[in-house]
Amino acid sequence: MVGPVLAQAQTVKNGAIVIGHVDSLTSAVLNEQRKVWVSLPASASYLAYAKQRYPVVYLLDGASHFAYTSDIIQRLSAATSSVFPEMIVVGIANTLRTRDLTPSRPTSVEGMSPEELKTAGGAEKFTAFIEKELIPYIEAHYPASAHRTLIGHSFGGLLVLNTLVHHATLFEHYVALDPSLWWDGEKLLKEAHEALAQPHFKGRTLFVASANTTGLDSVRAAKDPSVDGQHTRAKWKLRGNLARTKSNGLRSTYRYYPTDTHSLVTVDATYDALRYIFQPYMLAPAEYSTLFADKPTEAAAAKLVAHYQQVSARVGYAVLPPESIVTRLAYKFLSMPGQAPSALALYQLNLQNYPASPSAHATMGYYYEKQNQPDLAIASYTKSLQLKETPIVRKKLDQLQAKKQG
Fold first, then answer.
1. Does residue 350 sit in helix, strand or coil?
2. How far is CA 261 from the centre of its chain?
3. Pure H helices in 29-122
4. Closest CA to 152 of 179, 186, 123, 119
5. One fold for both 11-278 and 285-405?
6. Measured distance CA(183)–CA(397) in Å, rounded
7. For the CA atoms of 199, 202, 205, 210, what is the dihedral angle to 10 degrees?
8. pLDDT above 90 as % of the chain
9. What is the C-alpha to C-alpha distance for residues 281 and 364, in angstroms, rounded to an integer?
10. Which of the chain's ends, N or C, has fewer CB atoms near its CB within 10 Å?
11. Which helix (H) or strand (E) segment is 240 a member of?
12. What residue segments make up the domains of the chain, in order of their start?
């Protein structure tokens, strides 16, 4: 075990740009050491004081997809974007990929050696490792919530669907990127057909991405005997199954990417999948404009609370208005004539939701300072510094105290 490092999602260390770190754990289930790549949200370092817990994306083929997935999440969860919440990314590095990601062992596969096939079919054991060892480890050693998303590509997509079909409650959201449903004569596809007919998927989300694998039109792809042709037809069958089973509680979508090959589909589809899962997380432009009334009002804070209550109901866990978004709105109100009460309500909302956050107390101090209430500003800055020493807050406190004494 290397252990967690609470740091920003992207930092510079010794001249290198760092987006995460490598951790490891010993698996009794798999009887081997397993490495995971971990990326923490930018706010994890300072919100550690507020005991913030973050949703987790578990990423199969972690070494291949870790960098761009972490970057997408960091960029689109930033305060200026907030398309979805900040998340922890856990990339699971491979040891024996075919063993871990395939749910069965066929007798032969085009392009695959008998030696490689001997290891196939270990998906259930690998899933047991994730459920009984990896998830408990991550939730014990990192600020991770129990809200989980599983993303996999190709064989990884096959494992994603196998997990949904046989262990639906393990994750809330499932993202299968061009899944290899052709495997073993479409065995899993047949199991999925039966499982999807049952009402066992309430609160679960499935995003399926389909690449243009064959480069053929649908008529020729329907007759193509190659693995690529089998791959395409198996995905069509899944699309049909999803279209026919709308009463099982599963929220699902199937998207075709005509200009992306099997290898290229991952980046665009990961972006689309995360936006689909968490929509609507941010306020729409029309909703945002309603926050700014012509006269002083505390309604902006109430509207934010109501919006994130709706988000919570949709994603299945409690989502508080992000501190950074609330602070940005409060600052804008404070700069508007006569809107100090609106700003105050927002700063107070942050204190209510994040009472142990140094920045929540510091911004409250800023409000009081602007309102010529030095005693209250001093108290807020002092509280912030008790939680975390920050040079800029220390400077403001010293200036206020010197001014009061002089």
1. helix
2. 25
3. 44-47, 62-76, 97-101, 114-117
4. 179
5. no
6. 65
7. 10
8. 61
9. 26
10. C
11. helix 227-244
12. 11-278, 285-405
Q: Which of 75-79, 118-122, 367-371 has the lowest mean pLDDT?
A: 75-79
What is the total residue count of the chain? Answer: 406
Q: Are 21 and 2 in contact (CB under 8 A)?
A: yes
Read off the pLDDT of residues 197-238 as tens digits, 9 standing for 90 and up.
Answer: 998 899 899 999 999 987 766 767 777 777 788 888 999 999
Q: How many other β-carbons are positioned within 10 Å of the β-carbon of residue 8? A: 16
- Give me the numbers of helices (H) and strands (E) for the chain, helices first please: 18, 10
**Within a 13 Å sphere around the CA of 114, how many CA atoms are in the beta-carbon half?**
0
Report CA torsion sign: 127, 132, 134, 135: positive
Helix (H, G, I), strand (E, B), or coil: what is residue 294?
coil
Tell me which residue of 153, 96, 145, 84 sits closest to 122, measured CA to CA: 96
Residue in 52, 27, 211, 197 with CA at minimum distance from that of residue 125:
27
In the structure encoding, which two tokens stand for residue 260, read together? 């992306």
Q: What is the pLDDT of residues 351-399, one digit of tens each?
A: 999 898 899 999 999 999 999 999 999 999 999 999 989 999 999 999 9
pTM of the predicted protein model? 0.84
Top pLDDT among 397 and 81 is at 397
Predicted pLDDT of residue 295:
59
For the domain with range 11-278, which CATH number is right: 2.40.10.350, 3.40.50.1820, 3.30.420.40, 3.90.650.10?
3.40.50.1820
Q: Are strands 88-92 and 32-39 parallel, antiparallel or unpaired?
A: antiparallel
Q: Which residues are bridge partners to 210 per DSSP?
A: 256
Q: Which fold has domain 285-405?
A: 1.25.40
Question: Which residues, including other chains, have CB under 8 Å from residue 310's CB and lie 6 or more apart?
Answer: none
* CB contact set of 341 (below 8 Å; sequence gap of 6+): 296, 297, 298
Of the candidates 207, 220, 210, 205, the one whose C-alpha atom is nearest the C-alpha of residue 175 is 207
Local structure of 180: helix, strand or coil: coil
The model's pLDDT over 124-171, given as tens digits with 9 standing for 90+, comes to 999 999 999 999 999 999 999 999 999 999 999 999 999 999 999 999
Indicate the helix (H) or strand (E) that contains 270: helix 265-278
The CA-atom distances, in angstroms, between 84 and each of 13, 303, 352, 367 are: 27, 18, 22, 28
Type of residue numbered 152: G
**In 3D, which of 352, 363, 357, 353 has the Cα closest to residue 386?**
357
